[in-house]
Amino acid sequence: MKLLSIAFLSLASLFGAQKVIAPSLVAVAQDPMVAGPQHELLQRYAGTWDAVLTTQGQDGKDEQSKGVLVAKKSAGFFVVDDFEAEFMGQKFVGHGVHGYCPVRGAYFTHWTDSMSPSPLRAEGQYDEKSKTLTLVGECVGMSGKLEPCRIVTKHADADHQSFELWMQGPDDKEARVLRIDYTRRK
C-alpha cells in the first residue's frame, strides 16, 4: 500500500497536484526519497582505488594479483563500480551498484562480472564502531549453483579499505575465497 501511495504521489507531483495532497502523506512518501547519512557514507568511497587481490591457489598458498577500481557517485544515492584486474591468469572485469535502501533498512550490493552470468546480490548492515560493512546474500559457488555468501568490507580510513568474500568450502565450513586490499589513488 505504501508503494502505491509513493507511486501516486510521484505521478501527482508531475501533474501539479501536490497542493491537493495531505501534507502528512507527502512527508511519509518523501522520506525514503531523500539521501541520508547512509548514502553519504557510501559516497565517500567514490574515486580511483588500486587493488591487491589475494586468493588461495590449488597448492594452498596465497596468490596475489593487481587491479583497479573506479567508483562513481550516482544520483546521490548509489556508488557504481567498474573493476578490472588479472584474476586466475585471465582478465577480470566487474561492475557493481551499491547503496542503502531506507525502506528495507539495509545496505545492498548488486555485482556482475566476467566470471559468471549470474549476479551476486547481498544486503546487510554497517557497524560504525568497527567501520565494517557486512552483507549476506547468494553467490554462484563451486557447485555452479547459488550458495550463501558473506561480504565483509572494513574501512580502515578514508584511503584504505579491505574486502573479503566468504563462501562455503569443500568441508562445508565457511572459508575466505577472496581478499582485496584497496588504497585510494592520489
| Shape, principal axes of CA atoms | globular
Helix content: 10-25%
Count the DSSP helices: 3
The CA-CA distance between the termini, in Å, is 47 Å
Kindly describe this structure.
There is one protein chain. This protein is of the alpha+beta class. The protein has two domains: about 1-35, no CATH class; about 40-185, Calycin beta-barrel core domain (Lipocalin, Beta Barrel). The protein has three helices and ten strands; from the N terminus they run H-H-H-E-E-E-E-E-E-E-E-E-E. The protein has helices at about 1-15, 25-30, 35-45; strands spanning about 45-55, 60-75, 80-85, 90-100, 105-115, 115-125, 130-140, 145-155, 160-170, 175-185. Strands 1-2-3-4-5-6-7-8-9-10 form a ten-stranded antiparallel barrel.
Question: Would you summarize the structure shown here?
Answer:
The protein is built from 3 helices and 10 strands; from the N terminus they run αααββββββββββ. The chain is an alpha+beta fold and 186 residues long. The model is unreliable at 1-30 (pLDDT under 50).
Question: How do the helices and strands line up, and which of them pair or pack?
Answer:
Layout: H1 2-14, H2 23-30, H3 37-43, E1 47-56, E2 62-74, E3 78-87, E4 90-101, E5 106-113, E6 116-127, E7 132-140, E8 146-157, E9 160-168, E10 174-184
Antiparallel strand pairs: 1-2, 1-10, 2-3, 3-4, 4-5, 5-6, 6-7, 7-8, 8-9, 9-10
Task: List its salient traits.
single chain; disordered N terminus; alpha+beta; 57% strand; 10 strands; globular; Lipocalin; 2 domains; ten-stranded antiparallel barrel; 15% helix; 186 residues
